[in-house]
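Annex B.
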Amino acid sequence: MVSHAYRQPDELPRGLRFLAGGGEATRLILARDWTQHPLGPPEGWPTELKTSLSLLLNSPESMILSWGREELFFFFNETYFPLLGPRLSWAMGSPFIEVWADGWAQAKPIIEDAFDGRSQRFNDLPWKLATDRGEQETWWTFSYSRVLDAEGDVCALFIFTNETTAKVRADTALRDLNASLEQQVAERTADRNLAWQISQELLVVVAPGGSFEAVNPLWTELLGWTESELVGHQFAEFVHPDDLARTREVFAGIFERPLKQAYEYRFLHKNGHHEWFAWTAAMEGDKVYASGRRTTHERLQAEQLVQAQKMEAVGQLTGGLAHAFNNLLAGISGSLELAEQRIRQGRVHEVDRYLMAAQGATKRAAALTHRLLAFSRRQTLAPRVIDVNELAGGMVELIQRTVGPAIAVESVGVAGLWSTRVDPPQLENALLNLCINARDAMPDGGKITIETANRWIDRDGARQHDMPEGQYVSLCVSDTGTGMTPDVIAKAFDPFFTTKPLGLGTGLGLSMIYGFAKQSGGQVRIYSEVGEGTNVCIYLPRHLGEAERDDTPPDLGPRPTGQAGETILIVDDEPMLRMLVTDVLDELGYTALEAGDGAGGLQVLQSGARVDLLITDVGLPGGMNGRQMADAARVTRPGLKVLFITGYAENALLNNGQLEPGMSVLTKPFALDTLAARIRELIAT
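histidine kinase: predicted structure tokens.
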């Protein structure tokens, strides 16, 4: 585990911030006297070496860097420490041939091949080395990757490596043990051989470690696996992931008492699907003897029904999307076509109406995409620590105006409500949607109650609500309306499902709320009875901290312009978007540079060109995404300002929901005025 020491860049001098995050490995680098070393002091090391070391020191994988084809100076991260044995105290920065002198003869041809472009991956390769226990036969799994300098020449090797000695020895011992046990089983079960061969139930002997020791021939008939494909493997490898935790728990109890009441779980068939089997088992000596039978036809029918329902939902989703987007595309294309005709006819004064129609359809398409991203849990969120009581209380007036005077709105906020970390506008939108649904369920009037509470979800509640156990803040909306049937509740979160009359609902409201809650680490649950009203609760994880305040006033001024010489680099693989952004920047007085992928962008950033702001998509082709490019650029440009533009929240963008200082995110599609304001804000800070 990386220690706190040297974790943050501001804990190091500016010239050494590329060493941040390396823990004890960084300490070893700083502790060495580099004045007499061929590389010289770290502040003057080549950019490629600094960038490579930054990646190495922050990698959770065991990793080394060999710098210079002739010198092969040896660097390593903290995860690699246990593999060095007696070399640890002096190895950092020393030549590879000195660090691994006892293995150089074997390593030399592999390294030379890697420098010449013939990199390989080696699994469990035997190697005789000096260790803390003296010279021993060891085994290693590793691979080599070349590092290129600015001219494209090989300047170093990245080596991912792990010692697998313990695994190889354990595998060998296990194989020997299995061979011995198989012999013993064969000798002691000769009289059971006939029953073993003709049984109509799956029979298995499980060794103390949980591996298959013997199986009967029916396994091949029912599940496709031969005995040789099962024996020696862990039974857990073949259990359905959703059943694994409970299955381990049940089989652990066999050490205390036989499993007499059949236990069902899903077992992997060789063709890739899972089948249900019911098992009984008992201990004999130190082994488990178990028998399993395939469960009933009703179970299979139930699974087929669930699968059919899933496919129906997918069909409903794609059909609804096609219908909605075809309508919007027809409006956009038709408006642009008529605008073009009016321009050719000289009727320019009529063009505005068609452009406004096209813009309106575009905004509706963006809103639909936003709802779909929320449903799929891929929307870009900007979470903050908030007080839900304050948020809900501030919405009451808007909700009352929205639902009308025939419906009373009451807000009941519990005292001492915990904080939660969530995107405030998304939660406001979810609350408003729930209240609108409640209004529609009370055509003759009624009452809406908005309630908050602190909730502890225990193990049973977590299983019932399909959410992790723990502490949550709940925001619930209840009404006195018509209520829902169980069939409607079961489909309420499906995309495009609606009970409203044709044309009065998209069927995406609840699915969007569900996706937003799940993406925020929470859950949504519906409680309803026909004629008794409905209660919908959003559960959000508790955050241990004070609520944040957003006192930034809205920017209502003119579109801000650039200062003389200010330069912005745009990196996006969509040429049309680069063209539009570049045109906007030209109008605002900025100098614009362009790149179509991460490698091209990084090349500009590692040159001497002036770059005041990087605007980049997150998902980029070529193996380097926008976040990786920005992080690499900040090694040599630590103050670089970055604006990420994205259509959804790629995992590479956020670290636990946080962006580093000087970074911001803008969701596609965006208004050009918003882009201009965000650019000026970032450059000015």
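Residues 299-376 form one domain. Confidence is low (pLDDT under 50) at residues 1-5, 374-379, 500-508, 551-556. Further annotation is deferred to the next reporting cycle.
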